[in-house]
Structure formats: C-alpha cells, structure tokens
User: What shape does this take?
Amino acid sequence: MSEQHPVSNVYHNVTVSDPYRWLEDTADPKVHAWSAAQDARTRKYLDALPQRAPIFKQLLSQISATSSSFRSLRAVGDSIFARYTQPPRQQPMIALLTNAADPSLARIIVDPNTIDPKGTTAIDWFVPSPDGKILAVSMSENGSEDGTLHLFDVALGKEIGPLIPRVQYPTGGGALEWRADSRGFWYTRYPGPDRPAAEQHFFLQIFFHKLGDDPSKDAYALGKDFPKVAEVQLDARFNPKLIVVTVANGDGGEFSHYVIGTDGSPRQITHFEDKVVAASADADGALYLVSRKGAPHGKLLKLAPGLTDLSRAATIVPESDAVMLAAGEFGGEPVVVTPQALYLRELVGGPSRVAIFDHAGQPKGMLPLPSVAAVDEVEPLSDGTLLYSVETYLRPPYFSRYDSKTAKASDTPLVQTSPVSFSDTEVLRELVKSKDGTSIPINIVRRKGTSLNGMNPLLLTGYGGFGVSETPGFLGASVRLWLDGGGIFVDANLRGGGEFGEDWHAQGALTRKQNVFDDFLAAAQHLIEEKYTDRNHLAILGGSNGGLLMGAALTQRPELFRAAVSLVGIYDMLRVELDPNGLFNTTEYGSVKDSGEFKALYAYSPYHRVKDGTAYPAIFMATGATDGRVNPAHSRKMIARLQAATSSARPIYLSINAHAGHGIGSALSIRVNQQADVYAFLFDQLGMKLPQANAAR
Assistant: This one.
C-alpha cells in the first residue's frame, strides 16, 4: 500500500482531502521509485502470463504483414505528398506520389526511421510549398508532440535551412501555411524562455518566416489577442493567396476565423459567439462557413469575395438531418472547394456521407460510399478528379477516385491490405435507452452465429467528449484477436461526441457530463439484459477522455464489470486544470473556479469517488512518461487510491512507459507491446484462450 500524506483544499466552502498529492511531483526521487516499483510489479505479472507471448506474436505478425498505406494527402501541382506507413518500420514517413496515385512510384522524402534508428522521432505534421520544392515538417521525440520545424529540399530529400523550435505542442497543436510565392510561410510559435515556464505552452501566436532569414527575427503576424488556450490552424489549400486562420477557444468547440491576404495583413471574419465552426476559401476569394447558430446540425454560409462582415453572408445550404463537420485537430477539411463544386463532409449518427453542391448551394448528389463507412479525407487533384478515403469496420482503408464530369467513382491503387480477415464477422447497431430516456446507438461486432448465452466475453468501449465522433474504422488485429478468443466487441456512440450535432455534444459537456457516464452504464446494462454477456464476462476499455469514462464507470458501478482497462486517463477533476493541457479542457469540462461547475466535477471525479472497502474489478492502467496531454500523475494517484481501497482480491496494475506519451507518435514496437499487455490482461481476467492454431502460429 502506498504512503498517504493528506493535503486539503477548500473549494466553495467544501473541504477536499487529497491523500496522494505527493505523487504529482514527477521530479521527486520518491515518486520515481514508486513508479518504477509499480511498473516492475506490473511487468512481473504480465510477462509471466502464458498467453502474453503468443498474443504479442499474433499482433506483431499481423500488423507487420499489413501492407503499406497512405494518408494525410496534400496535392501540389501534379504531385501528391502523403504520410506513408510501411510496417514493420517504427514510424510513418512522408512520400511523394503522382496523380496516378500508384504506390509503386512513391518516393520517400522524409524518413524518421533513418533520422533516428531508435524509432522515437515522429512527424507531427507537414506542409509542402505551393511550388512543391520545399517541405516544412514538424518533428518531435518520444511521443512528446513537442515539435521543432525542419525544412527539406523535395528534389534532394535533404534537410535545408535552420531549425525553428516551439512550433507544436499538445493540445494547442501547431500549424503552418506558405505564402503563394513559396518564399516564406506563416507558422505558429509558443513563447520562449523570455516568458515564465508556466506560460510557455500557452499563448500561441502566428509569425512569418522569410526563407533565408534568421528565425529569431521572424515578424509577428497575429495572436496577441487570442485566448491563453488558443488552438490554431492555418489553411490555404484551395486558395494559396488567402490564408484562412481558425482559432479554437480551448477544446470546447468555439472558433473564430481570420484571413491573411497577399499584403500579409489579417482581417477577422468571425468571433466565438458567431458559432461558425469551419471555414474554407475558393480560388476567387469567397468564403464558405459552417455555422451552428440556430442550426445545431450546421448550415453552410457563403461570404462573397472581399467581404468580411459576417452579417452579409448568405445561407446557401440549410440545416438538414446530417451533421456538417466542424474544424478540429484531427481529420481533414469539413468543406472542400474545387473549381466545379463544393464537397461537404457530414455525419449521420457516426457513419459519414459527402454531399456535393455547386458554388450556389444547389445539390449535385453524393460521393459513392458503402452503406456504413467513414470519410476522413477528400483531396482535389490537378487533373480535375479527387481522391477520397473510405473506411469501414471490416475492410482496411482505401482511396477511391471521383470524376465530377462523369459523376462516377473508381478504385485506385491506394488500397491497404491486411492478413486479418473479418469474413466471419457481422456488425449490428442497436439503440439503448439511457437514464433520461435518450436513445444511445451501440455498434456490436461479433462472429456470425454467436450464441446469446449470457456468458460471452464482451469488451465495451466509448469516448463521449469534445465533439469527437466514434466513426467506422477498420477493426484490425486487436479486435480480430478478441473475436478469436470468443469475445464480442462493442463501441458506443455516447453523448459528448459529435455524432448528432452540437446539441448531442453539449448534453455531455460541462455540468451535464454525467450524461456520458449514464449512457455508458446503460449500454453495459443493456448488453447484460440482452444476454450478450454477464457481469463476470464484461470488460471495459477507454483512453484519454475515454479513460475518464472508465474511471467514472468503475467507481459508480464497480459491481457491473469484471475488468477495466484505462489508458492515459484523467481522474482528478479538481486539479486537472492546473496542467497545461487541463487548462485547454476547461471549456469542455468546466472549472473549479465556478461553483456550479465545481459541484458537477466533484460529483463525478473518479479519484474522489473511490470508496474504501469497495470490491473493485480487476484494473489495468497505462500511461506514458512524456505525455503532454494528460499528466501521468492522474494515473499514479488513481492507482494508489484504488489499491488502498479495494476489498476484492482482483489485481490493480499500472504500467508506465518512459518512451511514450499520449500515444501519438509512439514507435510501432511500443504500440504493439502496449496492445499485447492490454489483451493478455483481459484474456487472463476473463478466462479467455487463443485458439491453439493461433497460439502455435
């Protein structure tokens, strides 16, 4: 049992004790020793499991045998730059393709695996110059997402020019966009040592760098009036002469927009209160804006070239049953503009559709898609066609080519193949009534013919926050492993996500966050009542905000679950805002400084809801020492509290990886080992076995 050194704080006349505050101090040798002991204890357990080695081998062999893949496409002239993954290499690279989109003709421009043979250097993002001659790349180490900008000569594949530090950090992120003449670029930069250390991961601003100049002399362009928790995106994809600047007010879904023209001067177009959540510019300078003001599913506005007064924008596509996507940290452009049409990415409860309109907003059909699919990227090419990504649960991702002249789609060679087959698998969608009567969709993945005998091992997952939607995506090696062991896999579309628009998100944010947990618990109860599983075979899995979900679920209904896996989770909701990333989260979770929000946070804060003498399920938590999004102290404190409180004989373990962060940018070997840990733990706790043929192979 861990030492307790209680510290008390008073919030709005409520005294709150914290017995493990000392575990927050990462620099303390005692904390380091405690962490090492916890990790060693966990490794001793995991490495002794008979199935851990065969599980790792199956995952590694299947992931390594997966074909190369391309994503994050960026077309420039007749070339396409793309993030290129080639298992079993540790890190994705940047490759150059032609409009033919033929992988056999791909040329590697930047290879982190060569730059850093250890595999711990990752690409955060990249932006090619408009002439295609120079590639700007942010790179970071050990999963930290703490990015430095590098410039590469595309023809030579060699690094050129000086490094520019502090261009990227979680969660504020980072961005860059070139001037139309390719002689300079605007980019984001965090404060340097001239500011206090506590401010150096906030106050993101935009600077301009002219090629050949000393970066220390780069000119300030915009950002002194941005909020402290600004998250900034820059885009000139559809008009290189007009930079669209998107500024998020933390993680809560509020955005403002600016444009930077050829003279370099910024003009503000929207404010946070306007509820415009995405913006794109066409070649003529017209702006297309997704607005949720009076339209929680979104409506499309058009602002004529040269206008900056939002009141003069015309509604060209009204609100519909589908949800128009917002801008955000992950995923492609919500509104894609070509000379011929507008392509509007939309959600219908999780699955995607891409609606096509002319520039006046007249409907012109839909991109062809399977019945349940997700589209993350739509990239126009110089030949007038466009490439769009397609993902389903049971097929690896691929790109289709759409020709607007014929209104037909065709296959491309950009197809990922996998040794994993789901030919024996089906995906069902059911609705669950939550505590307040709201219908919650759940997506059930099972082998065909699975008997509903009430004893199937079942793994339930969800997220429910920040407007992030759970969309169809290839289930891959880990879910195949779970099915091979006789399991059922279920993904829940909880409130707090964006599947059904801003109202759906708002119902699971701030003081209404408990709705998310009620939705998840209702899904668990439904799966038991419908005989998919029982309490002795039900496990739950989540990460980050989904880790908060795990903490809330296992503290509110510990008797409902046999095992819980929580990765890089948030658990102390009263102190989370003291971390850099946590402050960005206050627009989503709320702040203890507000009495009403404090009351809600304290009511569900997992760390504070742990009760002594409670029989908790088996628990496995994992965190990364370099995590800049969620302080690893959350996992340390939560594990210490649970280990001290539980009355069951079920184990509670913590794994801490010194070379990993939040999971973004982690090396392939680290990711596979972490997956093997998770499933070895679950197989052991639920009494599951790999089929002998799989184990032998």
